[in-house]
Amino acid sequence: MNAIHSLDIAQAIDSQPVRRFQLLVFALCFFCLLADGFDAQALGYVVPAISKAWGLKPASFAPAFSIGLVGMAIGALVLGSLADYVGRRRIIIGCAAVSGAATLAMAGVSNLTELVALRFVAGCALGGLIPNGLALSSEFSPARWRAVVVMVTACGISIGSAVGGLAAGTLLAHHGWPIVFQIGGALALVLAVVTALVLPESVRFQALRRPGSPKIPALMRRVCPGLAVDAATVFTVLEEKPAGLTVRQLFAGRRLPKTLLLWVIYFSGLLEIYVFASWLPTVLHRAGVSMAWSVYATSALQIAGTVGSLLLGTVLERFNPGRVLTVLYTLGALSVFAIGLSLEQPWMIVLAACGAGFGIVGGQAGTHALASRIYPTFMRSTGMGWALGIGRIGSVIGPLVGGALLARDWPGQDLLAVGALPALLAAAAAFGLSRLLGRQNGHHSDEAAAGDPAVDEDAPVVPARA
Predict the structure, then answer these.
(1) Long-range contacts of 445-450 (CB under 8 A, 24+ apart)
(2) Nearest by Cα to 102 from 81, 129, 77, 137
(3) Which backbone phi and psi does 30 adopt, to 5 degrees?
(4) Is residue 233 part of a domain?
(5) Calpha distance 243→260 (Å, rounded)
(6) Which domain covers residue 141, as residue numbers?
(7) What is residue 265's predicted lDDT score, i.e. its pLDDT?
(8) 432 and 336 inside one domain
(9) Residues 68 and 102: beta-carbon distance below 8 Å
(10) CATH code at position 252
(11) What is the sign, positive or negative, of the torsion defined by CA atoms of 447, 449, 452, 456?
């Protein structure tokens, strides 16, 4: 068989089925985010035990929670952008190692100051891990499966949080609180070693940033084993690669309104999620709902969100993703409002909470998939990192807003009506974004159109050669 002399990397990946090598990449990214979710929630699981051991009130740990979220915002902004220069793989390995070491060190702290400092370090690393894990998995996926791959990979965060809760419940009953940090840190460090040995760099990133790398033909043979490529094959990536800072490109041409609308969705969605994660049981219990049913409703919200994240990927591929997100966030807002109307019927509260989780948490996972499609390879980590960073600001503000509203002693129905507003704002932004993306039927040459969704219609298409 004669070797192929010129090959478009995106077209080659899109034309092939998903191979075992790609599944390995997806699995590694998934487990890195799973460890991320475990470590991010570890403090929440041990606060009752550690506060008792140190003789502190649980409220004293609020700075540790807040600084972790601030660190995640900074990590997403800085390390997301850095990855578009040095590569996704290096950032993933470094973030896993740093978060693992910091989490492991938390097992040996003796005061709140040390805990806060380590939470900030771990938060920065965890914030950088998410956009790069999602970007790398999307860049090894065929376009027709990209939304599914990104959404399933993103589920690693919530699954890691859930697994952490189950593990903590068992471990704390038989061991001291340090064991939770020890397991979480060790898991992240093991994954850092495994990814250093096994995880490849994005082949698209290498073709754009490291043309001529001998690793590109070897990687393409593993991704597309049926193609006859060798060291003489010229690999092309039909995407732009303008000079200058990638952050500036977030606002170039028609990307400006798309970027701003995406930020609104991330900010509003994460604000909503963290408001309910922090205060929903309290709001329901104060409204006369039993503590057991309050916890069931909050758990149902998270479970339905995970189910939505797993099921909605194919829907996002078939239809305009902006319109899908509009429907999801609207469903979430109406469901939150319905919780307030169902305070006398606990089973209705749980049902409405399922709708809220499916719409809002599922919509958040869908937003990750949409972000991976809007931005081309040279700025994908930057775009996703900045969107997540802006969203993390919402996650910091959300619990504060919820606490301020609770302090006003409003009735539960009124609180939940106001609580539906961020989801409505996300739905409005998603609707505006859907108008910009156009129909996913090939009649509009946009990122969401048929073909490679990462090519911007405003930018000159420049082949990158390896």
Answers:
(1) 447/373, 447/374, 448/320, 448/321, 448/322, 448/373
(2) 129
(3) -60, -50
(4) no
(5) 22
(6) 9-206
(7) 95
(8) yes
(9) no
(10) 1.20.1250.20
(11) negative
Instruction: Give CA–CA dist 126/395, Å, rounded.
Output: 14
Phi then psi for residue 237, to 5 deg, are -125, 110
Single-letter code of the amino acid located at 122: A
Mean pLDDT by runs of 10 across the 466 residues of the chain is 65 82 92 86 77 79 83 90 88 94 91 92 92 89 85 84 70 79 92 94 82 77 74 67 69 86 94 80 80 77 83 81 93 92 87 92 88 83 89 84 79 86 94 78 37 41 42
Considering the domain boundaries, does residue 99 fall inside one? Answer: yes
What are the tokens at 2? 């004669």
Segment holding 236, helix H or strand E: strand 234-238
Calculated CA dihedral for residues 411, 417, 421, 422, nearest 10 degrees: 70
The β-bridge relationship of strands 463-465 and 6-8 is: unpaired
Same domain (yes/no): 191, 86: yes
Please calculate the CA angle 148-247-9 and round it to the nearest 5 degrees.
Answer: 45
Q: What is the DSSP string of 63-131?
A: HHHHHHHHHHHHHHHHHHHHHHHH-HHHHHHHHHHHHHHHHHHHTT--SHHHHHHHHHHHHHHHHHHHH
- β-strand 6-8 against 234-238: which pairing, if any? parallel
Place of tokens 């929440």: 44
Beta strands in 14-158 (DSSP E): none
Nearest to 363 by CA among 414, 298, 417, 429: 429
Tokens, residue 309: 């994240």
Cα separation, 145 vs 127, whole angstroms: 25
For 192, the token pair is: 């850092």
- Are both 263 and 175 inside the same structural domain? no
Q: In what order do the strands lie in the sheet with 463-465?
A: 6-8, 234-238, 463-465
**Based on the domain organization, do 255 and 374 belong to the same domain?**
yes
Predicted confidence at residue 230, as pLDDT, reads 63
| Residue for token pair 């859930």 | 162
